[in-house]
Specification:
mainly alpha; 6 helices; 174 residues; three-stranded antiparallel beta sheet
């Protein structure tokens, strides 16, 4: 635990202290570097399979829908766009590439003829398995030296920060 010096001397501890000006920004910078490195490694590992990180996210999202191989239960294209926080046109581009690769199929929505549902194919399910293996490998390489106790603390802190952020409502645009 870092304490505040009482004798007017500078604190000899390295790096910013919790609660000090700039500590949150430095934490955000460290997280951004980590995310970029993990994403880059994941992208390189997925290249041989012809899958981009964006396509991998879409496949994983589709795979989490119960019955994702059943036309009446598969995810709508518009819902996929919402879940991925991307524009519907961008989701269409991602799904076009996945369909061309045989990883998904489009199906008319039985409840709404204007809507399209995205079905995960058997090849798509196999791709989701490969994506999971790649994600696990990259995460293990990046976090392999971090103790399980520190992993739990980091995960708890990130979940807590995310919950507080979401509870505050949509961020203001300046």
């Amino acid at each position: 635990m870092t304490t505040t010096p009482t004798d007017g001397q500078a604190d000899p501890s390295p790096g910013p202290r919790t609660g000090t000006p700039g500590a949150a920004a430095e934490l955000a910078d460290a997280m951004t570097r980590a995310i970029k490195r993990i994403r880059r490694q994941t992208g390189w590992r997925l290249e041989p399979y012809g899958i981009t990180p964006g396509q991998a996210r879409a496949l994983r999202m589709l795979a989490h829908v119960p019955g994702c191989e059943t036309p009446g239960r598969a995810m709508r294209l518009s819902d996929l766009a919402d879940q991925l926080h991307i524009a519907p046109r961008s989701a269409t581009t991602v799904v076009d590439a996945l369909e061309e690769a045989g990883l998904v199929e489009r199906s008319p929505d039985p409840a709404d003829r204007r809507a399209v549902r995205i079905l995960l194919t058997e090849a798509g399910r196999a791709a989701v398995e490969r994506i999971g293996q790649v994600r696990d490998e990259v995460a293990q390489e990046y976090f392999g030296e971090v103790s399980p106790a520190d992993e739990e603390v980091l995960l708890r802190v990130l979940h807590s920060a995310e919950a507080r952020f979401l509870a505050a409502g949509p961020p203001r645009r300046y």
